[in-house]
């Protein structure tokens, strides 16, 4: 299991504990399940989301019921296999403890109460992550969402070493365009347009990730050439003349702390990764809202099937003999965990789900 870096206090505190903000009508209620156990022994493979699901009606509410301070909730190295999570019913909190020794004579879990603390041996190596990391790791830096303006200004490969059709690792690529001081780039090829299910406007393009390039020699002013020389670092797919470049994004934060959006969100599922028509638990979808709409990493949204419009044969017909058309309520089907955001689009991981998710389904602020 990979090491998980810490989340900034802004996400872990301000965004988490202001569910009852000026933009929200009511605070988010984090209620415990009526069948919640007294305790849970942490095992390898657990996630905080899954563990919390055994105690809470809304698993993503776990940060609000630990009773931690700002530094503790931001520290990813606070829960490990072998520790005990127990339900303090009187305080309405989850607590962290350690196994009770057989000869200690202590039977009260409260006597084993511990505060979260950082380990000095193998820090983070076995720490329990927030969500399943293996599912989303391939999506943290690619595939890519690019908008039309970005495609117009992105540097592009204009020639290849020895006029080769396709480039492989170690080959040279000749590039034109403004590098903005960057030296490491992803190579992409724009794919099909991603449309907003409501407006039908193009909100981005899902681009194929082809590999990475490293700057070898930047074009020198006054040399008579504005062409940069690159070397292929990795080749995931065939790349060549005409393919475009995008600076490699910074290493993403991977200790995702769930929180409701800072402002009301009413989004729609715009696409399902892999080209399928329906998605289930732990599959990736894109929605038609992004950074410009206030979404950030860790935002949790509720998923709904849009209520169908049906004829009410029990109501009085119109003057023209037509039956009244009524819209059925939207039906909640699951939750969506946002783990990567672009300007107008975000990638989300489907968590609990009771029915397949499809394009056009609603994703909105938790109630």
UniProtKB/TrEMBL annotation:
Any keyword Ligase?
A: no
Q: Which domain of life is it from?
A: Bacteria
Give the signal sequence positions.
1-24
Which InterPro entries does this entry report, sorted A to Z? Bact_Kbp, LysM, LysM_dom_sf
Provide the alphabetized UniProt keywords. Answer: Signal
Stretches assigned to the LysM domain:
38-87
> What protein is this chain from?
LysM peptidoglycan-binding domain-containing protein
């Amino acid at each position: 299991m990979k090491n998980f870096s810490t989340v900034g206090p802004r996400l872990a505190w301000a965004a988490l504990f202001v569910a009852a903000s000026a933009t929200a009508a009511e605070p988010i209620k984090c209620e415990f399940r009526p069948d919640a156990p007294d305790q849970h022994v942490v095992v390898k493979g657990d996630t905080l989301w899954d563990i919390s699901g055994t105690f809470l009606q809304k698993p993503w509410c776990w940060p609000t019921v630990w009773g931690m301070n700002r530094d503790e909730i931001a520290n990813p190295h606070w829960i490990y296999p072998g520790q005990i999570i127990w339900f303090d019913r009187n305080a309405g909190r989850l607590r962290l403890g350690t196994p009770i020794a057989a000869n200690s004579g202590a039977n009260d879990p409260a006597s084993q109460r511990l505060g979260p603390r950082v380990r000095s041996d193998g820090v983070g190596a076995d720490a329990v992550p927030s969500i399943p990391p293996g599912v989303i790791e391939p999506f943290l830096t690619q595939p890519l969402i690019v908008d039309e303006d970005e495609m117009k200004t992105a540097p592009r490969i204009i020639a290849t070493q020895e006029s080769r059709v396709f480039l492989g690792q170690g080959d040279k690529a000749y590039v034109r365009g403004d590098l903005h001081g960057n030296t490491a780039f992803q190579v992409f090829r724009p794919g099909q347009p991603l449309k907003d299910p409501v407006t039908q406007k193009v909100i981005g393009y899902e681009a194929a990730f082809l590999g990475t390039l490293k700057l070898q020699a930047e074009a020198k002013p006054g040399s008579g050439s504005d062409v940069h020389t690159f070397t292929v670092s990795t080749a995931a797919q065939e790349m060549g003349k005409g393919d475009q470049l995008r600076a490699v994004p910074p290493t993403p934060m991977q200790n995702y702390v769930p929180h409701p959006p800072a402002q009301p969100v009413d989004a729609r599922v715009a696409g399902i990764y892999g080209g399928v028509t329906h998605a289930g638990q732990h599959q990736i979808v894109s929605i038609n809202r992004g950074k410009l709409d206030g979404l950030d990493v860790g935002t949790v949204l509720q998923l709904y099937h849009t209520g169908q419009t049906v004829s009410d044969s029990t109501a009085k017909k119109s003057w023209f003999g037509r039956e009244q058309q009524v819209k059925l309520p939207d039906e909640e089907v699951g939750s969506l965990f946002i783990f990567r955001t672009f300007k107008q689009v975000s990638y989300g991981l489907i968590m609990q789900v009771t029915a397949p998710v499809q394009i056009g389904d609603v994703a909105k602020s938790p109630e």
